[in-house]
Design a protein that fits this description.
Structural class: mainly alpha
Number of strands: 0
Length: 192
């Protein structure tokens, strides 16, 4: 789980290693999500789910491309690809979804962007979020139809989806917890 490319800067080395762990965590979550979908379909709990949606396949491919970029020393490109992988579909889903809890999915790119991007770059992510939420409010403000919601039907899929979002966010945060101390220790060792 260490980068093959030798990043001289300890901060970049830490970010590369953290991003590698985030990639593997995201791939594991995709595998678990597909496994949960298979089980839901096998036990006829939800017949509407596509077992292997194209967005999960594309996501896995982009994660592997991101992994390759890190190994070749292109950390900034890998970071933007990783954040963009989450940002584009989640922003679109948040804007068009009628589900009142749809903005919760924005937690993943928010956490990833906050951990991986510089402050200036992260501000652009926040601007995108503000525009997303404004568009969502405008679109929903024009919707006059009623929506029937049956909690018993949605309880298991919601548990899986929210567990995925919050669990992956927690893993991202755990990957980088204590990183300042690690970077300082490595830097101190480099000086000696």
């Amino acid at each position: 789980l260490r980068p093959q490319y030798h990043y001289v800067n300890p901060t970049m080395r830490q970010r590369a290693q953290g991003l590698l762990l985030m990639i593997w965590a995201a791939l594991l979550c995709i595998v678990l999500l597909v496994g949960a979908r298979v089980l839901l379909a096998a036990f006829n709990m939800d017949r509407t789910l596509t077992i292997l949606p194209i967005e999960l396949v594309v996501g896995a491919v982009v994660l592997l491309v991101t992994y390759t970029l890190i190994q070749r020393g292109k950390l900034e490109e890998a970071i933007w690809l990783f954040v963009g992988l989450m940002l584009v579909p989640f922003v679109l889903a948040t804007v068009i979804a009628v589900d009142p809890a749809a903005p919760v999915i924005l937690i993943l790119p928010l956490v990833a962007g906050g951990l991986l991007l510089s402050r200036r770059s992260f501000l652009w992510i926040l601007v995108i979020f503000a525009i997303t939420l404004a568009l969502r409010a405008m679109i929903q403000g024009g919707t006059v139809g009623t929506l029937t919601y049956t909690p018993s039907i949605n309880s298991l899929p919601e548990l899986i989806n929210y567990g995925f979002v919050l669990g992956l966010s927690a893993i991202f945060l755990l990957v980088f917890s204590g990183s300042i101390e690690k970077i300082a220790g490595v830097s101190f060792g480099d000086v000696e």
